[in-house]
Specification:
- This protein is α/β, with parallel strands linked by helices and 751 residues long.
- The chain folds into 4 domains: 115 residues, Nucleic acid-binding proteins (OB fold (Dihydrolipoamide Acetyltransferase, E2P)), CATH 2.40.50; 72 residues, no CATH class; 194 residues, P-loop containing nucleotide triphosphate hydrolases (Rossmann fold, 3-Layer(aba) Sandwich); 229 residues, 3-Layer(aba) Sandwich (Rossmann fold).
- The strands form 4 sheets. The protein has a 7-stranded parallel β-sheet with strand order 11-12-10-13-14-9-15, sandwiched between helices.
- Strand 2 and strand 3 form a beta hairpin.
- Helix 3 packs across helix 4, helix 8 crosses helix 24 and helix 8 packs across helix 25.
- The chain is globular, with a radius of gyration of 30 Å.
- Bound molecules: adenosine-5'-diphosphate (ADP) and magnesium ion.
- Adenosine-5'-diphosphate binds next to helix 11.
Length: 751
């Protein structure tokens, strides 16, 4: 379609922003609005109000103060004036000329120097004057005005978008195809697509402003619902298609049940029993299982997975377990061997990781290939090497957030005839409604109960200055035969040859990656958005040039030669090679190391019940999910455990919230909820790597209720559609679904 104002050059610029069609442009919604229906007059304004003021530029100046440059602008209205101030805004210098009309929007503050009022860092826009075209005037003055994020350079400004979108809407008046069935819209009292699009861009007079800002108008809700509906519909179909595929119908005879019972070293919790029953019930179906086992740290996922694997083994199939790190794979391997010692069948268990030497790998692959190995435990080596299973029946993937979705599916494509069952385990507590909607292609089992006999972990926050007390405490615990972890955000301090950069604006996240397969190209990439916490895929990068940031290597040295002298202090971090890591971890597990100084490599899954103290230095730098995972490393035995969060002097507001939450609660789901709101869904779910689609208008945290609604409606449409839905409407929905999934959710579609 031809859009006025969009020539080939502009089209190219838009494409760079992912906008390829007129429709894409229409779904690029304003990120905020300005209420210029009632611009305020300066004589009635009071400090504390947030208001829109339209006035005349009187003068401007760039002031160089000792701390930073300040840009000041005076906006006048008759005899009144408003002073606007922007910090560090050298770029504004020379932008304004006296006499121009300007709209400013912000909070009104009292001004000390004069009786004038002041606005700090207001939003502003130079307005057209009377000589400008009528269209511009119409769009920007005397109405609720949409404000867009720039689509590039000085050209595709908010104003440009306003005009182009306005014209576009004019030109397609009455011909915008509806994308949802009419009866559905009627039932939900949602506006048509065309009026929704018109109204999100150019809200009619009287639209409640707060509702607009919160993306909560009927127009917004309709567009958000539409997007989520197509996501859920796709998941629904995918699930249905899976039910048509050929899987393995395992049988559970008394003999199998006995085999499961004989390996149990303890009474399973009710939650473990329920989860196992759900898994086994899936495994008995002739269709492939796709199930997510979700359980907080320490909830006992391992034994459930092992029992499921036993079902496969008892049926004469092989089972594979893939862990994200060598440490974890080894730990699972040792645990499996120990548990299956009690098994009368004595299956052969093998470990396949990247660090084995070539001969060993080849030998192990041979065992797997010939079916001599029944239980295969490993890392990415399981999918990266030329592993060919003899009769693979069940795949368990541990900590799915550490794997790309694609990889998850690669493993499943290996077998020859029927598809194996897949069980994904995650310790990330995803709020149930979200998990159900986002992993709609997986069935969900939740371990919502901890094994008995755990005493709550005492969590304390300690300021840096008092760390001597912490070391005394660690020493006392070790004297009582306990062990401790001390965790640092970085491996080593800044090297002298690295530039000194100022990262004080945001919170660096330099914790390290635990996955040996994380691509090297991602190293050094970092989130720089202000106020965002360390992400779920922390990167192994050296510290930004901050000399006061303690590191694992340095503190290992300092502690063993100082406050912890005489204790056996070990060091673990991601730059050690796999063998070295393994040696350290085993020595810690055997109690040959008292105190383990580490980075976040120990974050996931390591199980040493005798460890009772988790000290985290620079705790304010860690994300909530990370802190929770770290704390989960202790409190795994009967002894009382402690989590000590040592914090520096400057902690951001978000940092405070995270630390307070850690002290307040141990409930993983509660922490996850908070984490979601603090970080937003993209970072919470680890963005693309978790296979999460990127949304155009929806925000799955904010729009959780609409997500639920969309899920219900999608299921209804797929299974029991309303009788009033016409053939043409159905065809349009399917066509749109196909397009949406190919274009937007390509990643999820794999498999
Ligand atoms: P996670 O869910 O974090 O993987 P694990 O499977 O590692 O948890 O279990 C944590 C600890 O709890 C392990 O030491 C395990 O042996 C123990 N455990 C698991 N289930 C039970 C149970 N039902 N009763 C007692 N201890 C249990
Ligand atoms: Mg585990």
């Amino acid at each position: 379609m031809y859009v006025r104002g969009v020539g080939p050059r502009v089209a190219e610029m838009l494409a760079a922003k992912g906008i390829h069609t007129a429709e894409d442009l229409l779904y690029h919604l304003p990120f905020r609005y300005e209420d210029r229906q009632n611009p305020r007059s300066l004589d009635e304004l009071k400090p504390g109000e947030t208001a829109s003021v339209i006035g005349e530029v009187r003068g401007s100046a760039l002031l160089r103060t000792r701390r930073m440059p300040l840009f000041e602008l005076t906006v006048g209205q008759g005899r009144h004036a408003l002073k606007c101030v922007w910090f560090n805004a050298t770029y504004l210098n020379g932008k304004f000329q006296a006499g121009q009309t300007i709209a400013v929007y912000g909070k009104v503050e009292p001004s000390r120097s004069s009786s004038n009022l002041k606005m700090i860092q207001p939003q502003f826009e130079l307005l057209p004057d009377a000589s400008d075209d009528a269209e511009t005037l119409l769009l920007e003055v005397g109405r609720i005005t949409p404000v867009y994020e720039s689509l590039g350079g000085a050209r595709l400004t908010s104003r440009w978008q306003r005009k182009v979108i306005f014209r576009l809407l004019e030109s397609i008046k009455g011909v915008v195809p509806e994308s949802l069935p009419r009866v559905l819209l009627a039932r939900l009292s949602m506006p048509s697509r065309e009026s929704a699009l018109r109204e999100v861009h150019f809200p009619p007079e009287g639209t409640p402003f707060a509702q607009l800002q919160a993306s909560g108008t009927p127009a917004h809700r309709r567009l958000i619902f539409e997007e989520l509906f197509y996501l859920e519909l796709g998941l629904e179909l995918k699930r249905r298609r899976m039910k048509e595929r050929k899987g393995i119908a395992f049988v559970t005879t008394d003999k199998v049940r006995e085999a499961l019972r004989e390996v149990l070293p303890f009474h399973p919790t009710t939650a473990q029993k329920r989860a196992l029953a759900e898994i086994v019930s899936d495994m008995r179906q002739p269709t492939p299982m796709r199930r997510l086992l979700q359980g907080d740290v320490g909830s006992g996922k391992t034994i459930v997975a092992l029992q499921a694997m036993l079902v496969a083994l008892e049926n004469g199939y092989q089972a594979a377990l893939m862990a994200p790190t060598e440490i974890l794979a080894t730990q699972h391997y040792l645990a499996a061997r120990k548990l299956l010692e009690r098994s009368s069948r004595k299956p052969r268990i093998v470990l396949l990781t990247g660090s084995l030497d070539e001969d060993r790998k080849r030998y192990t692959r041979g065992q797997i290939n010939r079916g001599e190995a029944q239980l295969v435990i490993g890392t990415h080596a399981l999918i990266e090497e030329k592993v060919e299973f003899d009769r693979l029946g069940l795949v368990v993937v541990d900590e799915q957030h550490r794997f790309g979705v694609m990889q998850r599916f690669k493993l499943m494509k290996k077998p020859s005839d029927a598809e194996p069952d897949v069980l994904v385990m995650t310790a990330t507590p995803i709020p149930r409604t979200l998990a159900l909607s986002l992993y709609g292609d997986l069935d969900l089992s939740v371990l919502d109960e901890l094994p008995p006999g755990r005493t709550p972990i005492v969590t304390r926050r300690v300021p840096e200055e008092r760390s001597a007390d912490v070391w005394d405490f660690v020493r006392k615990q070790v004297e009582q035969g306990r062990q401790a972890y001390i965790v640092y955000p970085v491996i080593e301090g800044a090297k002298a040859d690295q530039p000194e950069l100022d990262f004080s604006q945001d919170e660096p996240c330099n914790a390290e990656a635990t996955s040996p397969a994380s691509p090297p190209s991602s190293a050094g990439k970092r989130t720089s958005r202000k106020g965002k916490s360390a992400n779920l895929f922390p990167l192994e990068a050296p510290a930004p040039g901050k000399s006061n940031l303690k590191s694992a290597v340095e503190m290992h040295h300092a502690l063993r030669n100082g406050p912890l002298a005489g204790l056996r202090v070990g060091l673990l971090h991601g730059r050690l090679d796999a063998d070295e890591k393994d040696v350290v971890m085993r020595r810690f597990q055997r109690g040959e190391i008292d105190v383990l100084v580490s980075t976040t490599v120990i974050e996931v899954g390591v199980d040493v019940p005798n460890a009772t103290v988790m000290v985290v230095e620079h705790a304010e730098r860690f994300g909530l999910a990370q802190l929770h995972q770290l704390r989960g490393r202790v409190g795994r035995g009967a002894a009382k455990s402690y989590c000590i969060l040592i914090t520096g002097k400057r902690v951001s507001e978000v940092g405070e919230e995270r630390l307070n939450a850690m002290v307040r609660t141990q409930d993983g789901f509660e922490l996850a909820e908070l984490d979601l709101t603090l970080r937003g869904p993209g970072e919470f779910f680890g963005t693309r790597q978790a296979g999460l689609p990127e949304f155009r208008v929806a925000n799955i945290v904010r729009d959780r209720q609409l997500l639920e609604l969309a899920k219900q409606e999608a299921a209804r449409f797929a299974h029991h559609p309303d009788a009033e839905i016409t053939e043409a409407e159905r065809a349009r929905v399917w066509a749109r679904l196909k397009e949406a999934w190919q274009r937007r959710y390509g990643l999820v579609e794999a498999g």
